[in-house]
């Protein structure tokens, strides 16, 4: 089996490039150890002649090329369509249609801030992925919201803030799931500090796992991670869902599960 991996463009890996690359390297080494031919590619390389491409790409140009590889019989993990479904506006629509609980949100038109918004909340970049700190901003009033929207300079979403613990989750299709509380020393942009130190509110782990599995299936992702809020009452709100995270806390374990997906077509 000829397998290729593709690294993530640094622009789509802010403050996480080292961890993302380490995750891909770990997968490659596991595959090589059991006798598979693995080629590391970048986003400009030729994609023909491979049975499987396991990639971290997010650029529109590369996703279109991966769609062509898929059409020619190559298995692409994650599928390009699933990656496109992670663009925030589309993602939130999919979660809503699938009855996955998430914070109340509004799609903002231009710089017009509706007077009905409840504060505090979050202004988030609507298209694509967060690439800089200004793409997700905590705001406490309409003036702050207007400034945040102007800095995004494009489609923006307003999400109501939910008090509670942030929990990070990771999964591979519907056979591997784990979660953890964020490490304040290893934060991408410092957003987690708004919710403060985790109080570790009790919640139903099976409900979280099933919620995440259902969301991943609706989005189409096979390798994924994200964030949720656990309220003091144990309610679960999905606030972010991403393709192919770095799995930093469980890298070796996750790599072994991902290669099952690659070689066993699970």
CATH A-level architecture of the largest domain: 3-Layer(aba) Sandwich
Average pLDDT rating: 92
Sketch the topology as an H/E string, one letter per element: EHEEHEHHEEEHEEEHEEH
How many domains? The number is: 3
N- and C-termini, Cα separation:
16 Å
Measured by DSSP, the beta-strand proportion falls in 15-25%
What is the 3D form? Answer: globular
Regarding quaternary structure, what we see is single chain
Number of helices: 7
Could you say which structural class the secondary elements and strand pairing correspond to?
alpha/beta
Give an overview in words.
About 30% of the residues lie in helices and about 25% in strands. With about 270 residues, the protein is α/β, with parallel strands linked by helices. It folds into three domains: about 1-80 and about 250-265, 3-Layer(aba) Sandwich (Rossmann fold); about 105-160, no CATH class; about 165-245, D-amino Acid Aminotransferase, Chain A, domain 1 (2-Layer Sandwich). A four-stranded parallel sheet has the order 2-1-3-4, sandwiched between helices. Helix 1 (about 15-35) links the parallel strand 1 and strand 2 (about 35-40). The model has no long low-confidence stretch (mean pLDDT about 90).
Could you write a compact summary of the structure shown?
By secondary structure, the chain is of the alpha/beta class. 32% of the residues lie in helices and 24% in strands.
């Amino acid at each position: 089996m000829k397998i290729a991996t593709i690294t993530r463009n640094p622009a789509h890996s802010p403050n996480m490039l080292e961890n993302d690359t380490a995750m891909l390297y770990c997968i490659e080494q596991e595959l090589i150890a059991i006798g598979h031919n693995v080629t590391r590619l970048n986003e400009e390389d030729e994609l023909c002649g491979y049975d499987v491409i396991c990639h971290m790409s997010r650029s529109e140009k590369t996703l279109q090329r991966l769609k062509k590889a898929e059409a020619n019989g190559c298995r692409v993990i994650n599928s390009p369509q699933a990656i496109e479904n992670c663009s925030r506006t589309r993602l939130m629509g999919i979660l809503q249609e699938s009855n996955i609980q998430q914070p109340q949100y509004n799609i903002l038109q231009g710089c017009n801030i509706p007077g009905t918004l409840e504060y505090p909340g979050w202004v988030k970049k609507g298209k694509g992925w967060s690439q800089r700190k200004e793409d997700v901003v905590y705001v406490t009033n309409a003036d702050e919201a207007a400034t945040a929207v102007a800095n995004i300079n494009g489609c923006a979403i307003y999400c109501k803030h939910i008090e509670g613990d942030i929990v990070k989750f990771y999964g591979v299709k519907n056979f591997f799931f784990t979660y953890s509380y964020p490490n304040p020393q290893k934060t991408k942009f410092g957003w987690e500090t708004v919710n403060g130190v985790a109080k570790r509110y009790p919640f139903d782990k099976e409900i979280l796992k099933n919620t995440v599995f259902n969301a991943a299936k609706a989005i189409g992702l096979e390798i994924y991670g994200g964030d949720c809020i656990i309220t003091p009452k144990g309610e679960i709100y999905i606030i972010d869902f991403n393709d192919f995270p770095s799995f930093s806390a469980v890298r070796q374990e996750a790599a072994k599960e991902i290669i099952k997906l690659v070689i066993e077509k699970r």
